[in-house]
Amino acid sequence: MPKSKRAKVVHLTQTDKKGKELSQKLFANVQEAAENFEHIFVFSVENMRNSYLKEVRAEFSDSRFFFGKTKVMAKALGITPAEEHLTNLSELTKHLAGNVGLFFTNREPADVLEYFAAYSQTDFARAGVTATQTFTIPAGVVYSRGGEIPADDDVALPHSVETTLRKWGMPTRLDQGKVTLDAPYTVCKEGQVLNSHQTALLKNFGVAMADFKIDIKAYYSKKTEAVIEVDAMEE
């Protein structure tokens, strides 16, 4: 196992006292994890949901995740060869850009990659997400699933939600106490970036379009002192 390079003083970005303390704690924890684990992964998250991330953390309870300030994590690992905490670790730091985190583990990289390649959870989309399908509600009485299942297997929406649906942009009206559309209404089209009214309607009709997924960008192994780019492996 390669030994850590001599500790160096690294100046963190000026912040307020509390922020500085948190940055220093993150810095120290990342370096400690680098000492204690054999493999370090850089990952990104699509459609972040804390509940699913908690589920993944539980699956890897013997490992550590960090999802904080990337500049602080990069400084902890070392941005240049002269600063790197372990030999060649600065090559991994190049991948710490954007909305990414660090994952430290002693599990074999092949097992980690296999797990995350298969792990995905579907949830309701939030504003800013791209629609994965076109969703159109048929004309007539509006049902709870918006035509996604046969009317005989569904129930009509309660009249109490009609005002809310109109607030979200649906041209509904009440006809003998039933929520009704005079013409089919397209909530969204595939490839369209969703706004808050569209996501509210999709959730109301039980249409989930967001996949929570963790993508591994690259990883470092102490034994080889090498950084493997996962995208390059898949090409």
Plain-language structure description:
- It is built from 8 helices and 11 strands.
- The chain has helices spanning 17-36, 50-59, 70-77, 90-93, 109-118, 162-167, 196-204, 230-234; strands at 39-46, 64-66, 100-105, 121-123, 135-137, 140-141, 172-175, 178-181, 185-188, 210-221, 226-229.
- A hairpin with a 2-residue loop joins strand 7 and strand 8.
- Helix 1 (17-36) packs across helix 3 (70-77).
Strand/helix succession = HEHEHHEHEEEHEEEHEEH
CATH topology name of the largest domain, in short, is: Alpha-Beta Plaits
Secondary-structure content class: alpha+beta
Task: Please write the CATH class name of the largest domain.
Answer: Alpha Beta
Query: What's the architecture of the largest domain, going by CATH?
Result: 2-Layer Sandwich
Low-confidence stretches: none
CATH-defined superfamily of the largest domain = Ribosomal protein L10, N-terminal RNA-binding domain
Largest sheet, strands/sense/barrel = 6 strands, antiparallel
Q: Helical segment tally?
A: 8
Instruction: Supply the number of structural domains.
Output: 2
Average per-residue pLDDT, rounded, comes to 90
Strand content: 15-25%
Task: Tell me, briefly, the overall form.
Answer: elongated
Number of β-strand runs: 11
Give me the Rg, rounded: 24 Å
Q: Specify the helix fraction band.
A: 25-40%
**In whole angstroms, how far apart are the ends?**
30 Å
Subcellular location: Cytoplasm; Nucleus, Nucleolus
Domain Large ribosomal subunit protein uL10-like insertion: 125-207
Family: Belongs to the universal ribosomal protein uL10 family.
GO molecular function: RNA binding
